[in-house]
Amino acid sequence: MQIDAVDQRIIALLVADARASYADIGSRVSLSAPAVKRRVDRLRSAGVIRGFTAVVDPAAVGWTTEAFVELFCAGRTTPAQIGAAARRHPEVVGAYTVSGEADALVHLRAADISHLEEALERLRAESFVTSSRSTIVLSRLVESPGVGPSTV
């Protein structure tokens, strides 16, 4: 599927505010509301836009402690096994296979250090995890929901 500059702007506007009306987006990209809707429908049917979601501030719900955890796994652990295990833990907000020494990188969020320690211990108890290395986040410097350079 070809994505032109107008599609890129529409995507960027939706990333910035998924509740923006087609009319509002249209006024910013010089299209009518129905034309924007057709483009969004096309982007959705092609799988470019997978859905719309609310972005919740973790601090607002009391989950202010976070860490990145490198997982070192036994032998032939597959990405599917790591992903399935990560989904079992509500504190996991992201899990990735990575290059380098570790096999996976897991992003955890918790209410406090005690909760984080409990979540980490449960994650480390997964049968394939041989060891881990954790880094506690002190402050967030940059956070973007976008997919690349902003074109808004």
UniProtKB/TrEMBL annotation:
Q: Mind telling me which residue stretches traverse the membrane in this protein?
A: none
In the record, biological process GO terms are: response to amino acid
**Record has Nucleus as a keyword:** no
Assigned keywords, A-Z: DNA-binding, Transcription, Transcription regulation
Give residue ranges for domain HTH asnC-type.
3-64
**InterPro entries from the entry?**
AsnC-type_HTH_dom, Dimeric_a/b-barrel, Tscrpt_reg_AsnC-like, Tscrpt_reg_AsnC/Lrp_C, WH-like_DNA-bd_sf, WH_DNA-bd_sf
Molecular function in Gene Ontology = sequence-specific DNA binding
Keyword DNA-binding listed? The answer is yes
Q: Which GO terms describe its cellular component?
A: cytosol
**Name under which the protein is recorded:** Lrp/AsnC family transcriptional regulator
